[in-house]
C-alpha cells in the first residue's frame, strides 16, 4: 500500500504558503488566519500585502460584542494596523471591554472610531483602564454613545496619565456639568490632548467654568468645541477670562449656545490680549448689533484671528457698520460669515467701504440678508480695486438686474475673484447680459451660480456668446430659471468648442426633447464636460434617445441627472443600450425623492440587462418611479454578479414584499453594493414585516452593505423595526 502524503499550511514551504495567500483577500487573512498557530502567524506577518494593511474600515456592519472579541484577539499581536473604524456596530459595553483588553498589548493602533455603538459608562471604564497603559493611540472617537458623567469620569482619570492621546471626541453623550468638571480636572495635568469635542451635550455655565479653570494651566489643547450646549453669557465669561492668558487654544466653537451681547463682550475683552486664537465660531446665537460692536473693538488690534462666523445672529446695518470699522485696520481676518442676518444696503455700504483698504479678507458670505441694488453697487465699487477677495456669496438677496450690472462692470477688470454666488436674486435676461459682457474679459472667475433666477432663452444666449472666448469658467449653474429649447441650443453650440467648462446645471428649466437634442449633439464631440444636470426639464423618451446616442461616443461625462422627467420605459431602453458600451459614466440619476421618470418593470429590465456588461456605473437612482416586484427581480438578478454598482436607490417604488425578497436573495451574493435605499420621507415601497425580515436574513451573510434605508414610509410595524434595528443597525 502506498503512503498517502498530506500537506497543509502548517507544513508547506513558506514560498508556497505565500502563493496560497495570494489567492485570498487581505481581510480574509486578517479574520481567518491570525492566531491559528505560531508558524502561520509568522508566515502572515511576513507576507507583504498583509504588512500593507494599515487601515480597516468596518463601520455600519453587524459585528456586535462577539465579533469585536474576535477582532480584539487579532489586535493583541497585530503589527500593521494603525486605523480602525467600528462605528455603528452595536458593540456595547462588552465589545468595548474586548477592545480595551487588546489595547493593553497593541503597540501600533493610532486611531480608533467607536461612535454610535451603544457604549455606556461601563464600556467607557474599560477603555479608560486600557488608556492608562497604552502608548500608541492618538485619536479616539466615542461620539453618540451613552457615556454620561460617570463614564466621562473614568476617561478623565485615564487622561491624567495617558501620554499619547491627542484627539478625543465625546459629542452627544449626555455629559453635563459634572462630566465637564471631571474632564477639567484631567486637563490640568494632561500635556498631550490637542482636540476636545464636546458639542451636543448638556454642559451649562458651571461646566464651562470648570473647563475654563483648567485651560488656565493647560498648555496643549488647541481646539475646543462646546457648540449646542447651554453655556450662555455667564459660561462665556468664564471661558473669556481664561483666554486672556491661555497661549495654546487656536479654535473655539460656541455656536448655538444661547450667547447674547454680554457674552460676546466678555470674549471681546479677552481677545484684546489673546495672541493665539485663529478661529471663532459663534453662529446661531443672539449677539445682535450691540454684541457686534464689542467684537469690533478687538478686531482693530487683534493680530491672530483669521476666521469669524457670525451667521444667524440678529445683526442689522448698525452691526455691519461696527464690523466694517474694524476691518479697515484689521490685517489678519481672511474669512467672515454674516449669512442669515438682516443686513441691508446701508450695511453693505459699510462693509464695502472697509474692503477698499482691507488687504487680507478673502471670503465674504452675506447670503440670506436684505441687500438690494444699492448694496450691490457698493460691493461692486470695491471689487474694482480690491486685490484679495476671492469668494463672494450674495445669494438670497434682492440685487436684481441693475445690481448685477454693477457687479458685472466690476468684473471686467477684477483679477482676483474666483467664486461668485448670485442665486435667488430676481435676475433676468438683462442681468445675464451684463454678466456675459464681463465674462468676455474676466480671466479669473471659475464658479458662477445663477440658480433660481428668471433668466430665459435670451439670457442663455448672452452667456453662451461669452463662453466662446472665456477660458476660465469651470462651473455654471443655471438651474431653476426659464431657459427653453432655444436657450439650450445656444449653450450647446458653445459646448462644442469650449475647453474649460466641466459642470453645467440646467435643472428645472423647460428645455424639453428639442433642447436635449441640442445638448446631446454637443456632447458627442465635447472632451471636457464631466457633469450635466437636466432634472425637471420636461424630457421624454425622445430626449433620452438623443442623450443615449451621445453617450455612445462621449468619453468624459461621468454624471448625468435626469430625475423628474418623463422618459418612461422607452427612454430607459435607449439609455440602457448606451450603457452597454459607455466606459466613463459613473452616476446616473433617473429619479429621486421629488420625482422619477415613469419607469416601470420593463424599463428596469432594460437597465438590468445593461448592467450585466457595464463596468463603470457605481450609482443608479431609480427613486419615485413605477417599478414593482418584477422590476425588482430583474435588478436583483444582475446584482448577484455585478461588481461595480455601490449605490442603488429604489425608494418610492411599489416593489412590495415579493420584490424585496428578490433583492434580499441577491444581497446574499453581492459583494460591492454599500447603500440600498427602499424608502424616503415622501413615500415608501409597500414593504411590510415580511419583506423587512427577508432583508434582515440576507444581511446576516452580507458584509459589504453599510446602509439599508427601509423604515421610511413603509408598512413595517414598530415592533419589528425595533427588533431589526437591535439585530443590525445598518437597517434604518
Automatic annotation (TrEMBL):
F-box domain mapped to chain residues: 6-53
GO terms under cellular component: cytosol; nucleus; perinuclear region of cytoplasm
One GO-annotated biological process of the protein: nucleocytoplasmic transport
Keywords from the named record: GTPase activation, Leucine-rich repeat, Repeat
Superkingdom in the source lineage: Eukaryota
GO molecular function: GTPase activator activity; small GTPase binding
SMART domains with a match to the protein in the record: LRR_RI
Protein name: F-box domain-containing protein
Organism, scientific name: Rotaria sordida
Lineage: Eukaryota, Metazoa, Spiralia, Gnathifera, Rotifera
